[in-house]
Amino acid sequence: MNLGWKPKYGRFDVLPLVISVAGADPVVFDIPPDLVMEPIAEKLGLDTMSNSSLWKDRALVEINVAVLHSFQTAAWLTHVWEKDRGMEKKKQIPFKILSHHLWSKTLAQRVMCTILFASETGRSESFADNLYDMCKPYFNAKVVCMKDYMVSDLCNESLLLVVTSTFGNGDPPVNGQTFDKGLKEMIKNSATLIENGYSVFALGSKAYPHFAEFGKTVDKSLSDLGATRVHKVGEGDELHGQEHSFDTWAGAVVEAACKSYNIVPDKESKNKKETSRKAVQAWTPDTYRLLPQPQTPNPDLCTGQ
Ligand SMILES: Cc1cc2nc3c(=O)[nH]c(=O)nc-3n(C[C@H](O)[C@H](O)[C@H](O)COP(=O)(O)O)c2cc1C
User: Fold this and answer.
1) 121 CB less than 6 Å from ligand 1?
2) Where are the domains of the chain?
3) Mind listing the pLDDT tens digit for each residue in 271-297?
4) Long-range contact list for 47-53, CB < 8 A, 24+ apart?
5) Fold of 111-279
6) What are the b/e assignments for 228-244, b being 16+ CB within 10 Å?
7) Looking at the whole model, is its pTM more than 0.70?
8) Ligand 1: does its nearest atom lie under 6 Å from the Cβ of 235?
9) Flavodoxin-like domain: from which residue to which, for each copy (predicted)?
10) What is the DSSP letter of 8?
11) Which atom of ligand 1 is nearest to the CA of 236?
């Protein structure tokens, strides 16, 4: 009732469905009356064609009797289904349709958010998955690898978040090469303008001369094509707190995006520290490099100095 639902029939009523998806504000859905009253009246053999048969009143009395009975016997706790009885197919369909309809309605009300990644050794992909977890309470989000993405779809995006590394000599990872080419073509033709909101997180290592170059290029290209930066490009240096930089950028991006699309982030998720980070890809010799460290004298075992 705090959400604005008003009982229609008194103390015993058909409660609405209240759906809250992954911490988002709950949404109230009234159960359509024809899904409740008419099937019951039909089962009771009442004439639903005419109100003068008082079929609604009689059906309501039966519902009240059933509710009282269920409270007395706690039937939902003790009921054991007959073994092979199963449910008749036609009884399952209305609920499936209803739940599908309600779920689609909830998702359809949300802004679409595509999280695009390109990765050589799995870090960007893992970050993209984390970003998805942060976005899904507020957006209709999906994660897509650049190699499976058509650049022409950029025109259909609402919110585009890009997480990508740089490889070789400031180049895209292999699974980002087609996207890179497509984006360059698009700019060359300068025919299409895209209007979505976007932000980019660029991974790299300052051990290389062209630090996080590809991510920065994607950021500039999207801006040149007309997209609106909802938050400035984030940079994650492999040698210096890359995960921390990502967390900071991701938190700020979700907040900025919610603001841009008039979504109110719920306080609980906002205050919650992102502790559920998924483990970044396992160690393999070809994905890590050993770097020489400055020589330090062995510490004294007693003093630790
Ligand atoms: C062979 C190799 C080449 C790299 N080239 C660059 C580069 O040109 N610029 C840069 O900023 N980082 C470069 N890096 C660092 C990667 O971008 C960095 O390790 C990043 O975190 C990898 O992310 P990913 O797992 O998503 O591919 C290179 C790394 C390797 C192993």
Assistant:
1) yes
2) 17-78+89-105, 111-279
3) 444 444 444 444 555 555 666 666 666
4) none
5) Rossmann fold (3.40.50)
6) eebbebbbbbbeeebee
7) no
8) no
9) 113-254
10) S
11) 21
